[in-house]
């Protein structure tokens, strides 16, 4: 692992201007965001999870019609789309139950199974309890030319010990093997990558050293880390 402080610069001379478009003003505290072609029409849709409402929804491009995924649970803070069932439709792996003001209360990893037809329920399948889960991302960690199945990287922002609202306890970084039988909770195998970093907040995946395998980038109190 390499830890490096980062200094970033922003050019004030940039002529690029962005225009904001409100997609939904009925959901509070949207935190988890992802994009995927949910309905198979060749356009990227937007998936959003709320930490203020028990809502995960997807918004259909190009007019952003809202489709409810679930109105159960809470703290839907991070989302990774992936077709776990192999039927051609992305399912949603979600980190939920996040609440920074309590100790180990309800943080968990689960996946929501895409229905056969729009309007049907997305079934939730529990994967693991992950207190203070904060970021998830898919990464290709296999050797060049081997399995193309990605791994799931999971980061918790802090540990379980300590008082509510404290951030002194280090978080954890895990690697989960995606299961061929994802409905079986016991089939999800996990491997601890690190449990020494504090306030794991930013997670990005990229092949930094260009060896054909993704690297894991994590930002935390200690700085910017390459795993």
UniProtKB/TrEMBL annotation:
Upper taxonomic lineage: Eukaryota, Metazoa, Porifera, Demospongiae, Heteroscleromorpha
Chain ranges of the Aldos-2-ulose dehydratase beta-propeller domain: 106-226
Record bears the keyword RNA-binding: no
Family annotation (Gene3D superfamilies): Integrin alpha, N-terminal
InterPro entries (UniProt xref): Beta-prop_AUDH, FG-GAP, Integrin_alpha_N
Key words of the record: Signal
Pfam families from the UniProt entry: AUDH_beta_propeller, FG-GAP_3
Domain of life: Eukaryota
SUPFAM superfamilies: Integrin alpha N-terminal domain
Designated name of the protein: Aldos-2-ulose dehydratase beta-propeller domain-containing protein
Organism in which the protein naturally occurs: Geodia barretti
